[in-house]
Design a protein that fits this description.
six-stranded mixed beta sheet, 3 domains, homodimer, Arc Repressor Mutant, subunit A, 10 strands, 11 helices, D-Maltodextrin-Binding Protein, domain 2, alpha/beta, two-stranded antiparallel ribbon
């Protein structure tokens, strides 16, 4: 078996950023914490913490902490826990900005959300760094189950003044190449995918990068560029470049071992997705 | 002198994620792109790109691209440019969610925003990865100027039901240790700093991590925890844990060489900060 007090020390160090803070939080001496980590590193045969400050975990350390959280989540069904149980989830930013947050009330846990683009949130699960994920990827990660939730509809929006200036003849290939888009981050392919569906050509769009959902929608409303906006976030005064939507199917990926413990959360997610997403 | 066509190739590869996409965007062959990068790597004496996919730049590559963008920004004052000029800025998430975005209209540039906590956004400037930053840090980075913008006021807020359940005797040290907070990310110290100012003790708070400004405020409104919310984002129905505010001074840090080229942006930032922040 793994040394669980040592994993608890590792978890606190990474959460709080220092050996001293972890010692104070766990009510033990810093040297006891150091000793636990040293023994754990010897057992694992590799360094687990870059000492910092702040102290940072290696990939292996993050996987160990994630395992500890999962064990705590399972223990919770058997016995009361002495500290709040943590659940780490990857959620795509637009789900968080629209329908997702109220489901968290379904379980009395402490949630640690990791944000990413919908095409990449599942990667966090594959890397063993989260227990579950909302993602646009349909393929299951080994050891995980997948539940289809519905489709989030995006429309290509801009201000009427922006459309008049940049798209006088509609969203032609040339106009799409030249007009600034608003892009969530480097990994965000929504604009390119929609432009490809519309024109049949893969275009290299250039644009502002605004890596926050609300600010993204606000940037479009300010006329900085055109962008793919989830239906639920479209503000009055914007117009579509074309009626063609981009539908992004969303899936709930969950570690199979945690499925019973997280059943109330899964039920809340299914219910809310059924109400807020397209079938 | 550096080889600017090679830097342009490097920039496009990192922006688009592949040599092929960069070649298509620049209208040259992939082998011409490879050759430019190879020559540049030999000149710099180090690898600049992890081939991927997606292709990712080393720290040195990111600094070179940032330098190219700065040179383009300076050139813009002398001659029309054949492609849109990119400006990379670090902005703290709460500024982006409240007052910052409309200032971007002051210059006709393509903006690439990097988001971070207000205590760390300046680090991006020090690492040479952005041209300017909004940060709570008053000390200038070498080669940069600092302009004080005013203070963003935060209040410790929660729902009345949350306060009745977790803080029946007010925000005591014991209650603050036990009640779940909402925390932006691991680096976010706003809750701890406020709790220390209130109690005189450094507390280790535990809480949900919600790394998006609007969702953070929504999580507090849903009763998941208490959190420090910017005045401008406080929703009706929330109550303060205490009248004690946390005032965060904000500064505009800007590369000195770019100050003339970015003067209209700086003027817009000063004007909007004067209207939206506390003096």
């Amino acid at each position: 078996m793994l040394d669980y007090p040592a994993l608890a020390a590792l978890s606190e160090i990474l959460r709080l950023g220092s050996f001293e803070a972890a010692a104070s939080s766990l009510g033990v001496t810093p040297s006891a914490i150091s000793q636990r980590i040293k023994t754990l590193e010897e057992r694992m045969g590799e360094v687990l913490i870059h000492r910092g400050p702040p102290a940072r975990g290696t990939d292996k350390a993050l996987r160990l902490v994630q395992h500890l959280d999962q064990v705590r989540l399972l223990e919770r069904q058997l016995a009361p826990q002495d500290r709040p149980t943590l659940l780490r989830l990857a959620v795509n930013a637009d789900s968080l900005a629209t329908w997702f947050l109220p489901v968290l009330g379904a379980l009395d846990l402490i949630y640690d959300l990791v944000l990413d683009d919908q095409d990449h949130s599942r990667d966090w699960l594959r890397q063993g760094q989260v227990s579950a994920a909302i993602s646009a990827e349909p393929q299951a990660v080994p050891g995980c189950d997948v539940i289809a939730l519905g489709r989030m509809r995006y429309l290509a929006m801009a201000t009427p003044a922006f459309i008049a200036r940049h798209f006088p003849d509609g969203p032609t290939e040339a106009a799409l190449r030249a007009a600034p888009a608003v892009i969530f981050n480097q990994k965000d392919a929504a604009q390119s995918r929609w432009a490809e569906a519309l024109t049949g050509r893969r275009l290299h769009l250039s644009g502002h990068r605004i890596p926050a959902s609300e600010a993204f929608a606000q940037a479009v409303a300010l006329g900085l560029g055109w962008g793919m906006i989830p239906e639920a976030m479209i503000r009055p005064g914007l117009a579509p470049l074309s009626p063609l939507p981009l539908d992004v199917p969303l899936y709930w990926h969950i570690q199979r071992a945690l499925k019973p413990a997280l059943a109330p959360l899964t039920a809340a997610i299914r219910k809310r997705a059924a109400a807020e997403l397209r079938p």
